Amino acid sequence: MGWLSFLRRAAPPAPPEHEPDPMDQAMAAFREGDYGTALALWEPLARAGNARAQSNIGSCFAEGLGVPRDPKLALQWLTLAAEAGHPTGERNLAALYLQGAEGIEPDPTRAAALYRRAAEQGDALAQDMLSWMLLEGEIIPPDHEEARRWAEAAAEGGVAASMTRMGMLYHHAMGVERDVAEAARWWRMGALAGDADGQAMLGAAHHLGAGVPKDGVEALAWLIRADRAGSALAQPFLAPVRASLDAAGIAEAEARAAAP
Questions:
Q1: Which residues contact 222 (CB under 8 A, 6 or more apart)?
Q2: Whole-model pTM?
Q3: Using one digit for the tens of pLDDT, what is the confidence trace for 53-78?
Q4: How many whole angstroms separate alpha carbon 116 and alpha carbon 51?
Q5: How far from the centroid of its chain's Cα atoms is residue 99's Cα?
Q6: What number of other Cβ atoms are within 10 A of residue 48's Cβ?
């Protein structure tokens, strides 16, 4: 073919500027509750070795999202993701070993090791769990200082439960010097982030005037929120705080509790 004929050929169509990313499409479908579409998009990626897709498929089998719940298949897919070093896969596999399931014996020690691996890679939820384990001391030896470090990292990653835990650590002088104002600051952060226990503890702090101004109305408002969200920590304070207020104060607290 001569050069002139070459130039006269129809030009091939230009490729689209942005090919749709299958992972993005899958995540969009998942967020909309279309788990079947998400799984169909993840499957070829997972079989090709994509650890994120493997982790997502494993989580769907663990929770029964778009497929029948199948802990053994969850274990297979999550193990592949964890072995590839994917932090979410490590964390989800840790949860499976921590709780155990049909055909899967609980292995708390292995779970702790997986949580640590994920935490060291910056997974905030794994950092939160590792912090909790280090405080409980039932699975791994207790270490309050390390528990505080991981809780702070998780809190900075947006985990509300760790914000509340930081308040507890400062209140009880665990791994840090006691500082009730710092405890209340962390409880407020957890409360505003939606953690029910943080709301309960902030309410208690306002009731006692510990690290924040003594304020019965504000105390009751936070305690009501916490109680409605299921925090058992609110229960011991509700009756005394209500008893300390008149009808107008109680009404004001209930109005605040109902507000966004």
A1: 191, 199, 200, 202, 203, 206, 257
A2: 0.86
A3: 999 999 999 999 999 999 999 999 99
A4: 18
A5: 17
A6: 9
